[in-house]
Amino acid sequence: MALPVYASPLERVWHYTYIVICVAIFVFLIAPILIIMPLSFNAEPYFTFTKKMLSFDPTGYSLRWYDLLLTFGMAAPDGPRDASWWQAAWEQSTWIKAAKNSIIIGFWSTILATTLGTLAALGLSRPEMPYRRLIMALLISPMIVPIIIIATGLFFFYSNPCAILGTECGRLTSTYTGVILAHTTLGIPFVIITVTATLSGFDQSLIRAGASLGASPARTFFKVVLPLITPGVVSGALFAFVTSFDEVVAVLFIAGPEQQTIPRQMWNGIREAISPAILSVATILVVISILLLATVEVLRRRSEKLRGVSPA
Questions:
Q1: CA dihedral sign of residues 199, 200, 206, 211
Q2: Which of 147, 169, 183, 305 is the right S-S partner for 162, CB 3.0 to 4.6 Å?
Q3: Can you list the alpha helix ranges (DSSP code H) found in the chain?
């Protein structure tokens, strides 16, 4: 907001001080993220800026670490890059396998979290719902409880899910199903919060109007309620997907060798063989996160327009 012409000297001083404070906070938050981007183009196997990079010498920059994401784990990484090479990279590359696992697990956990979270938010939005505050606290507890506690509990529970019944059954650890369910547990609270926020401005008289016109509850939901809360549902789904895509602690406890995700592979790389390829992956993840957050903002503004709320 521009400073008015009639502002006093003290107001002008505070205005510019406020801008400096905001810029300093922004730099403090964003600098650790931005600094990894140029480091991912380092031609040398270091995690620091070299003299050539600081002097902007073109020879100090390289795409070798991005290329390593394709070749790491391949049996013949130096062969001609024809169709068979790309096929081998798709099947053998360690980072590509981790990316495929992250996408598969993130997709299915997002579907489950969005469905269950939306249903929970719809129930919690009804005024006649008993113990709403207690139920809400329980449902969003995965956001509050330290992830290490949740991961430990999930590990012991998934090791024998039927133990509470006093019987033995198949274990969910080291399975895609177990990892997907764990990520669903972590993603549901984000869906509940975003959808509940959208429903807070929903006009309940529209449901009564649909019922008075003879529409069934299901038809009213799909024709009236769902189109209006879709931006909130999609925003919650994006948050659930990002939560799954970035999760590493639950994967460390529950996943097996075949369910390695990108964060788990980054963890392995830091422990076993430190390589700037990790910075390349981090840069790609930052770009993806920025795109997802931009999408969330667009959906938020669309939701405000649908609800007749003018952005402040």
A1: positive
A2: 169
A3: 9-34, 36-39, 51-54, 64-71, 83-92, 94-124, 132-139, 141-144, 147-159, 176-199, 205-212, 217-220, 226-246, 249-254, 262-272, 277-306
Q: What is the DSSP letter of 47?
A: S
Tell me the per-residue pLDDT of 170-212, one tens digit each, with 9 for 90 and over.
Answer: 788 888 999 999 999 999 999 999 888 888 777 777 877 887 8
Tell me if residue 196 falls in helix, strand or coil. Answer: helix
What is the reported pLDDT for 309?
53
Kindly report the pTM of this predicted structure: 0.82
User: Which residue in 183, 177, 155, 150 sits closest to 263, CA to CA?
Assistant: 183
CB 165 within 8 A of CB 159: no
Q: How many CA atoms within 13 Å lie on the side-chain side of 123?
A: 13
C-alpha distances out from residue 276 to 49, 270, 273, Å? 12, 10, 10
Residue 237 is encoded by which pair of tokens?
């789904």
| C-alpha to C-alpha distance for 29 and 44, rounded to whole angstroms | 27
- The span from the CA of 266 to the CA of 65, in Å, is 13
Residue 8 CB-density burial (10 A; 0-12 exposed, 13-18 middle, 19+ buried): exposed
Whole-number pLDDT of residue 312? 47
Q: How far is CA 132 from CA 38, 139, 264, in A?
A: 49, 10, 37
Residue at token pair 């639950």: 250
Task: Look up residue 78 and give its amino acid.
Answer: D
List all residues 6 or more positions away from 13 whose beta carbon is below 8 Å from its beta carbon. none
- What's the rounded Cα separation, in Å, for the pair 289 and 278? 16
* pLDDT tens for each residue of 146-158: 899 999 988 988 8
Are the C-beta atoms of residues 263 and 246 closer than 8 Å to each other?
yes
CA distance 127 to 101: 41
